[in-house]
Amino acid sequence: YSFVSIPENTVVYVDGKYIGATPCKSYVSAGAHKITLEKKHFETSNENVVTKGRLFFSLFSKRKETYSATLKLTEPDKLMADSFNEFARWGMVDNFYENYQPKEVLTPLFVALKVSGFNNTVKMKSFLYSALPFVHNELLYEDFVNAVVIFEEITTGENVTISSNITETFTQLKFFKDSVKFMENLPFWFYTLLSEDNRESEVSWYPAVQEDYSVFLGDFQNDYPSAMARISIDGMSFIRLSGGQFLAGADGSSFPYPVAVKDMFIMDREVTNELYKLFLVENPDWRKENIDQLIAENLVNEDYLKDFEQSKDDQPVNFVSWYAANAFCKWFEKEMPDYMSDYDVKLPDEYQWEWAALTDSDDAGIFKSSSLNGALSVSGRYPNGSGIYDLKGNLWEWCDNWYAPAAGLITSRNPSYNEPYYGKYPGIEKVVRGGCWANDDIKISDRGSQPPSWCTEFSGFRPILVKRIDGEER
Q1: Cα–Cα distance for residue pair 445/133, rounded to 1 Å
Q2: From CA 444, how far away is CA 365, in angstroms rounded?
Q3: pTM of the predicted model as reported, rounded to 2 decimal places
């Protein structure tokens, strides 16, 4: 038998024995058998068949038959979530090689959606926009484009034919033509994912786009943060920064694009071991003695709070995961005085973090040197012009948003449209910013990322306070 199915990669059993995943082949002896096909999020297919014997004209020729099945999709939302996670993981890989290629993920997903009759085009379009920032080379683009074609066929009810010319797929598909109306920087995303050969041979329009954007950048009015007040809450000092708009990545480390931030309070130092001890007193579940349970819940790794007992109180706490840092923020929110009850405590997203770091500083930052073998105390240095310490170096700082490799290119010229992470689906790694004592000097717009459960000696955090919007859930 040749076993084929929609969707592919469906597990096949014959009489309860595992055969393989479609498409696959297997010898099945003559007689009655039960064929079962199973795949997560699809209804299991069971069928009783009678397999005939060898062909009559030869004792040596086996009969060849094809067994095909289309499984009914029962959990489209969960299938989309799992597919996004798998595609995002491929999107986190920097480079692919001849013997290491990404698996097709989006194409079979949209085939399954189409065959099942799923027609929620709003959800599908949102899914595509969520996946877009993880597309950073031609291999991932091919899978993405195939999904876009199927999406447009579902939307219009007509067949869509695409060119073999990679540039024409970008300039002709309605999805991209619509997207570029509010994501004006999308042509830069497309250009960066192309191979060198295709950049030279197929993108004649790029210089004009580049020149037009240079004019826009020249006319853009860049604001700078202003420190308006300082408050102290339970021994933690916060600086109130004005909001504004600025060019993220303008220091030359990445593609510059405009973003907007609102007023906020930011802690003037990284959270110390002393402050983290206060958190542990009131939150015993996060003590190191419970590390096995925390690991089981994928909230930390085995290095959580390593060397914590031997570290000085005035050193910034490290070996803490994003989840631990976020739990600290939620705890501190409950400690807020009544006059700050309309503020949320959270980790900064990377726009808020970069905004706070824009101010000039007399401190060059704590970066790699022969005298350093770990993070330094949070005291004893100059702050930046806003009164904030160690945004450059000492420890990488956890940010609130998920990391997507091409996020800065999936952007608009309107600052208020741009977000640090698009979509409702969780990413794979959280952003870290600022560099640390083990790095050479880096620019403030340099981006790093780590799985949110990681705990390393190179990462810490600082909270911010942001005013809650009326009607927003706490």
Answers
A1: 18
A2: 11
A3: 0.93
